[in-house]
Amino acid sequence: MALKCDVQYRKGDTWSKLTKVGVTGVRKPVVVRREGIGGALNGALNCSIDIFVDLPADQKGSHLSRNVEVLSDIVEESIREPVTGLEDMACGMCRKLLVHHEYARTASVAIEAEYFRESRTPLGRGTLEMYRLLAGGTAVRGGGVRKTIGAEVIGMTACPCAQQTVSEMTGADGTAVMSHNQRNVCTALLTMDEGIDVEADDIIDMIQGAFSSPTYELLKRDDEGQVVINAHANPKFVEDVVRSVLEAVVERYAGLPGDVEITVKSESEESIHKHDAFAERTASLGELREEYRRRPSQ
Amino acid sequence: MALKCDVQYRKGDTWSKLTKVGVTGVRKPVVVRREGIGGALNGALNCSIDIFVDLPADQKGSHLSRNVEVLSDIVEESIREPVTGLEDMACGMCRKLLVHHEYARTASVAIEAEYFRESRTPLGRGTLEMYRLLAGGTAVRGGGVRKTIGAEVIGMTACPCAQQTVSEMTGADGTAVMSHNQRNVCTALLTMDEGIDVEADDIIDMIQGAFSSPTYELLKRDDEGQVVINAHANPKFVEDVVRSVLEAVVERYAGLPGDVEITVKSESEESIHKHDAFAERTASLGELREEYRRRPSQ
Amino acid sequence: MALKCDVQYRKGDTWSKLTKVGVTGVRKPVVVRREGIGGALNGALNCSIDIFVDLPADQKGSHLSRNVEVLSDIVEESIREPVTGLEDMACGMCRKLLVHHEYARTASVAIEAEYFRESRTPLGRGTLEMYRLLAGGTAVRGGGVRKTIGAEVIGMTACPCAQQTVSEMTGADGTAVMSHNQRNVCTALLTMDEGIDVEADDIIDMIQGAFSSPTYELLKRDDEGQVVINAHANPKFVEDVVRSVLEAVVERYAGLPGDVEITVKSESEESIHKHDAFAERTASLGELREEYRRRPSQ
Amino acid sequence: MALKCDVQYRKGDTWSKLTKVGVTGVRKPVVVRREGIGGALNGALNCSIDIFVDLPADQKGSHLSRNVEVLSDIVEESIREPVTGLEDMACGMCRKLLVHHEYARTASVAIEAEYFRESRTPLGRGTLEMYRLLAGGTAVRGGGVRKTIGAEVIGMTACPCAQQTVSEMTGADGTAVMSHNQRNVCTALLTMDEGIDVEADDIIDMIQGAFSSPTYELLKRDDEGQVVINAHANPKFVEDVVRSVLEAVVERYAGLPGDVEITVKSESEESIHKHDAFAERTASLGELREEYRRRPSQ
Question: Measuring CA to CA, how many Å separate A86 from each of A82, C221, D117, D152?
Answer without folding.
Answer: 10, 45, 21, 27
